[in-house]
Amino acid sequence: MGSYGAPAAEGGGRGRGGARYYPPLSALVVSAIAAFSAVIVLAVLHSVYDGAVSRTRTLLGHNLEPTPWHLFPHAKGRPPPRAALRCAPSFACLPPLSQPRPQPPPAAAAPPAGRKRRQCPAYFAAIRRDLAPWRQRDAGGGGGGVTRALLEAARRRASMRVTITGGGRRLHVDLYYACVQSRALFTGWSLLQLMRRYPGRVPDVDLMFDCMDRPAINRTEHAGGDPPPPLFRYCTTRDHFDIPFPDWSFWGWPETNIEPWNVEFKSIKVGAKATRWVDRVPTAYWKGNPDVASPLRVALLGCNDTNLWHAEIMRQNWTDEAKAGYQHSKLSTQCTHRYKIYAEGFAWSVSLKYILSCGSTALLIEPEYEDFFSRGLEPRVNHLPVSRQGMCESIRDAVEWGNGNPAEAERVGRRGQRLMQDLRMSAVYDYMLHLLTEYAALMDFRPAPPPEAQEACEGSVLCIADDKQRRFLEASRAEPAVDEPCVMPPE
Ligand SMILES: *[C@@H]1O[C@H](CO)[C@@H](O)[C@H](O)[C@H]1NC(C)=O
Ligand SMILES: *[C@@H]1O[C@H](CO)[C@@H](O)[C@H](O)[C@H]1NC(C)=O
Ligand SMILES: *[C@@H]1O[C@H](CO)[C@@H](O)[C@H](O)[C@H]1NC(C)=O
């Protein structure tokens, strides 16, 4: 019974006199060596494991650098290390774990009889303008489609490459950089939901996507000669060739507690019903974060005077808001003023749709950036324009005009709300479908995921998400469409 554990086991008898015995020195040495080796083995295992975790890429980008062209430091979503491995697509997308692959619709399913196919909103026409640089033109023109070389050129400013293959059934993402917050996760999810909504209808594509804010493909620098590199992102400007694509917030923005668009629109509309336009405060209101390197928003702080400029400008501190459980940032309780100001941030702002939803008259400070639906904005029809020069005076003039012409101002507000009502999720998915379909038609090569790309499926996205993200993702799940997609406006 040489076990040196024994004395301890008998340790209850500590007071039983001096007969304690000690293990021989050799046993101590042996056990020290054993313990030491165990530590080494554990350390090796741990580092192999760490290595595997650090090589396992996820849509959170936890092991990638942020894009070099981003100004702000940002926290990357960091999954618990075990989740990174457990959620690796190679496990999470195995058939039993991933969602069942949607079945193709019955061949040539005719649209329900007597049901006229919906026309797409007029701003869908912008899809053709956005893709015009890659269209085949007649001999002598540029055009010539999306080539591998152009795609490779777009890579320089992309944060990820996205491929859809297998008849619109498989999504692969090759992430080059970490995206801010959970943008990549939600954008991957948005594509998966498009594939779920239109099983077998999403074309095979190979595209470069940048998840950061500002457009990168300068029109002047790519004038004449070869077509520009095709790069998808959330916005563009009239001076850029970047191709706008619906941003993540339509599927929810957990970091600011903004619900998926269909949920958020409904609750804002209910909030808007609480107070009729005429009974709202007859001034202009803005609430947001001015600290986003936006000279415009900083200048807007200077218009904070209800007497002089009829404007109330409030600061949103998201850190404080998060601590207070987002009680004061609820968008549905912000339809209290007749006029709501929209001011761009570092680039386009996702707030536009929430502002327009109130039915208040939207005052848009000369936007520089466009997102996919903001091409549906018409001055004096669904919003009032405010100029950047003499901004406070311009706000004051708009408010005075509206209070002098309340019926007309209210109609402008109602048309803005209508534009948002028509921007239901089915329209968002239809925009994505038409955009990808037209883009796919321009590709002059067959899409195939690069070897480094990882498959993304609902299982892998839900697995890597934290609890809050998962709640938003599940709430924004699409159902297979019962209607045909809307019909593009005529050329
Ligand atoms: C595009 O490039 C030109 C020439 O380099 C420059 O003058 C212009 O400011 C750039 N435009 C934008 C929107 O960055
Ligand atoms: C704007 O003015 C109001 C009322 O004076 C004040 O409560 C608010 O804090 C001001 N906003 C900012 C951003 O300073
Ligand atoms: C927001 O609030 C946090 C915590 O209360 C504070 O540290 C930070 O300075 C505030 N930011 C701004 C821009 O006021």
Automatic annotation (TrEMBL):
Q: Where is the Glycosyl transferase CAP10 domain?
A: 201-446
List the GO molecular function terms.
transferase activity
Q: Which domain of life is it from?
A: Eukaryota
The alphabetized UniProt keywords are:
Membrane, Transferase, Transmembrane, Transmembrane helix
Q: Is Transferase set as a keyword in this record?
A: yes
Annotated region Disordered: the residues are: 96-116
Database matches in SMART domains: CAP10
Spell out where the chain crosses the membrane: 25-49
- Give the compositionally biased regions (Pro residues): 97-109
Q: Which PANTHER family match?
A: KDEL LYS-ASP-GLU-LEU CONTAINING - RELATED, PROTEIN O-GLUCOSYLTRANSFERASE 1
Give the family from UniProt. Belongs to the glycosyltransferase 90 family.
Name this protein carries in UniProt? Glycosyl transferase CAP10 domain-containing protein
